C-alpha cells in the first residue's frame, strides 16, 4: 500500500507531511457519484470543442445514460447556449463563509449542466480574474455541484495547456480525453502540444475529432476541403492518435444552435449518430 493511499485528500496528505502525493490524489465531486469523467480538449479556441462536447452529451443521454456537463471554460463559457438554457441560473446555497453548493441546470432531455454563465448575473458579463481565482472557482464548480448519480461527466476544457487545463488534468480523475481539432497544419501543431501534455500526465486519449473538415458544395455535392488538402487521416497520423471522425462545416447546425435547438438537430443527424453513438 503506497503512503498516499492513507490520505483522504490532498490537504490530509499535506497535514501528514506527505508532499509526494500532490499529483496522485484525485479530487472527487462531493455531492454525487460520477462513474466516468471524459475531458474534451483542443489546442486552440474556436475549433468546435464545446460543440463536440454538446453533441456527445446529447447522444449519450439519448442512449439512456445519466449525463453531466461541466463547462470548465470559465472565461469563455458556451455550453448553456448549446443547450438553450442560457436564460436559466444555477441555484447557489452557501455552505460556509467561503464555500457554496451549486445546483446544475437541467436541459430538456435531462443533461445536468454547470457553467460560469449559469452563475453570473448577466450572460455577457465578463470574468476578469487571474489564474488562481479561476482555478479556485472551477474546483468549487466541479466539487460542489449536486451532480447526483452520473454515468458520464463531460468536461469542456479551456483551450491550451494553461493553468486550468493543468488543474483538471492533474487533479480530476479523468478516464480519457477526446481531442477536437480542425484539419490545418497550424492547428494540428498546437493540438499536438495537448497530446504530449496528456501523455506526460498519463491520461489516455480516445482519439481526435476533425471538425469543420469540409463543406458540401451546394451545386455539385462535392466535399470541399476549405482548410487543407490533407485528409483527416493524415492529420490524425501526425498527432499519433486514432481518428474518431470528421465533421463538415454545417450551416444548418449553426442555425439550430442559434435557435437553441441543437439537441434536436443532433438526434436527427445520421452523421453525428454514426460517429458518436458507438463511442461509449
Ligand atoms: P470552441 O469550444 O473550440 O471554442 P465552439 O464549439 O464554441 O468552439 O465553436 C465555435 C463556433 O463555431 C460556434 O459558433 C459554433 O457554433 C461553430 N461551429 C462549431 N462546429 C461547427 C460545425 N461543424 N459547423 C458549423 N459551425 C460550427
TrEMBL record:
Recorded superkingdom: Bacteria
Lipid metabolism listed as a keyword: no
InterPro entries referenced in this protein's UniProt entry, alphabetically: Mrp-like_CS, Mrp/NBP35_ATP-bd, NUBPL-like, P-loop_NTPase, YlxH/NBP35
Keyword ATP-binding on entry: yes
Residue sites binding ATP per the record: 43-50
Keyword terms, alphabetized: ATP-binding, Hydrolase, Iron, Iron-sulfur, Metal-binding, Nucleotide-binding
Coiled-coil residue windows: none
Pfam families: ParA (PF10609)
One Gene Ontology term of the molecular function aspect: ATP-dependent FeS chaperone activity
GO biological process, one term: iron-sulfur cluster assembly
Family indicated by similarity: Belongs to the Mrp/NBP35 ATP-binding proteins family.
Quaternary structure note: Homodimer.
Job of this protein: Binds and transfers iron-sulfur (Fe-S) clusters to target apoproteins. Can hydrolyze ATP.
Protein name listed in UniProt: Iron-sulfur cluster carrier protein
Amino acid at each position: 500500500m503506497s503512503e498516499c493511499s492513507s490520505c483522504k485528500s490532498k490537504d490530509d496528505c499535506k497535514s501528514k507531511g506527505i508532499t509526494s502525493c500532490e499529483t496522485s490524489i484525485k479530487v472527487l465531486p462531493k455531492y454525487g457519484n460520477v462513474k466516468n469523467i471524459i475531458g474534451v480538449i483542443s489546442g486552440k479556441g474556436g475549433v468546435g470543442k464545446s460543440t463536440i462536447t454538446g453533441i456527445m452529451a446529447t447522444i449519450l443521454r439519448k442512449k439512456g445514460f445519466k449525463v453531466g456537463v461541466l463547462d470548465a471554460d470559465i472565461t469563455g463559457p458556451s455550453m448553456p447556449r448549446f443547450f438553450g438554457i442560457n436564460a436559466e441560473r444555477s441555484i447557489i446555497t452557501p455552505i460556509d463563509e467561503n464555500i457554496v453548493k451549486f445546483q446544475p441546470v437541467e436541459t430538456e432531455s435531462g443533461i445536468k449542466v454547470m457553467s460560469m454563465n449559469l452563475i453570473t448575473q448577466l450572460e455577457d458579463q465578463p470574468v476578469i480574474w487571474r489564474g488562481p481565482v479561476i482555478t479556485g472557482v472551477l474546483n468549487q464548480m466541479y466539487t460542489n455541484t449536486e451532480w447526483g448519480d452520473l454515468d458520464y461527466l463531460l468536461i469542456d476544457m479551456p483551450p491550451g495547456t494553461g493553468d486550468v487545463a493543468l488543474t483538471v488534468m492533474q487533479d480530476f480523475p479523468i478516464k480519457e480525453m477526446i481531442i477536437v481539432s480542425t484539419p490545418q497544419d497550424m492547428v494540428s501543431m498546437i493540438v499536438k502540444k495537448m497530446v504530449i501534455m496528456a501523455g506526460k500526465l498519463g491520461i489516455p486519449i480516445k482519439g481526435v475529432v476533425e471538425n469543420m473538415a469540409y463543406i458540401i458544395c451546394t451545386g455539385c455535392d462535392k466535399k470541399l476541403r476549405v482548410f487543407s488538402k490533407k485528409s483527416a487521416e493524415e492529420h490524425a497520423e501526425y498527432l499519433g492518435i486514432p481518428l474518431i471522425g470528421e465533421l463538415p462545416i454545417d450551416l444548418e447546425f449553426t442555425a439550430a444552435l442559434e435557435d437553441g435547438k441543437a439537441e434536436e438537430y443532433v438526434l436527427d443527424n445520421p452523421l453525428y449518430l454514426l460517429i458518436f453513438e458507438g463511442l461509449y
